[in-house]
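#lab-general

N.A. 3:47 PM
ok so I finally got the sequence cleaned up, no stray characters, all 481 residues accounted for. can someone with queue access submit it? mine expired

B.Y. 3:52 PM
send it over

N.A. 3:53 PM
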Amino acid sequence: MLAFLPALCLSAFWIGGEAFLVFFSIAIPLAYAAFGGVGRHFDPGSNERLAAPSLLGVAQEFLEIAQHNGQTTACFQFVVPELDQISKRFGEERAADARALMVSRLRSSLRAADHVFHDEGSGFTVLIAPGFRLRLDDLLGLGKRLRSAVETPLAIEGVSHACLACIGIASSLNFGRNVTAETWLLSATEAVEEARVSGLGTTRLWSDRLSRHHKSRHTLQDEISAALDQGMIQAVFQPQVNLRTGDVIGMETFARWDHPTRGVLTATEFLSAARNSQQMSRLGRTIFLQAMTALLDWDASGFDIKTISVNLSEDELRDPDLAARIKGDLVRVGLPSTRMILEICDRVLAAERDAVVERNLRELHAHGCAFDLDRFGAEDCGIVALQQVPLMRVKLDSDLVRNVDLSDEKRRAVYALLGLCERLDIPAVATGVETLQEQGVLRDLGCTYAQGNVFTTPASASEIGHWLAGRQTKNQSATRG
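B.Y. 4:20 PM
back already:
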């Protein structure tokens, strides 16, 4: 509305002269401020509940002002998954208190003219009032400041909770003059969803390219059920090697989708599609059965592969039939449960776990299955958490391992984590080892086990069989020589 004040004042001057001009130039801003103008925040304790600005209304107004004045406005969307966990563990009242505290922290980091909205779950939207200095660097800098406000740990019942956020940013600079508030807000939603796919603690800025990628992922969501029906999604395997002896001590299982038009897709590219289409349990079972078959085939070929690892998602662990199904599958094919390692993420180690997850872990362990902790070093996982589940090994995250030969900081971090694992008597496996130089540094730091493309890229069971045969022949020739 304020964007049209100059035009209104000019019309008033034409109609009634200077008296009308003075009256309108003073009365309109006062009326605007009195009835909930831009920059006012809703106070739940006030009597203005019915006058609280709507997200869509403020967004449309900010766009109009920015377009009229040649300014820029921006929308930040946040998702804080830990809020959902707080609601489950401590109740919705505590979660509401946590949301209110985060809103307060966000507002303290913003100008009076900016707006903060939140939903009833884990999402927040921040609308930045139009300004002339909102370029890319400014938006990223503001994003860091707001992230710091949101991710400040929360204390609930004496326990500190880390609250990592995913952030999506949509700037009005990316759109034409006819863009609607709905389109702008939807673009920020696309950006934050892409951030969620990339992992906690990430930020994504909306662009045409990001939008195309987002829509492409949603297309996969419609196709994944048929892909599972038609056997397009297959297990591939990568060896785990003893760096001291060179022996292959196990295999890790990955999923690959041989898509008819997009080529081979890694799990990272389609896991969110599987999750959103409620296909995670089916995908997990498909890969699990193929992993068992591969291990039995290698046994029949005379290869000494002691264990095989399969990832268990949180979605699968919440399935009340999971433990019984895995136990039944192992018994049916005659595979000892001690040879099956189930990989879990650090969130599963939370002190307050879902009752179904707790039961599945307990029953699988009682049956003899072992657990590996995936991506150790990538997230905040404390010593107490490591002792919540009987772990066989921890997997050092590939981001930590990458270029460890070139970074003193990474070497110190890996050395510290290896020392921690040694004191807890939990072996570590370095993942994502790409070069001989990385392999050498890891061995010198005391890491005994590793996997990565330096040995071989993930391959089908038959291809791994050929690789094992070639390695066996090479070792025999070296022994005879």
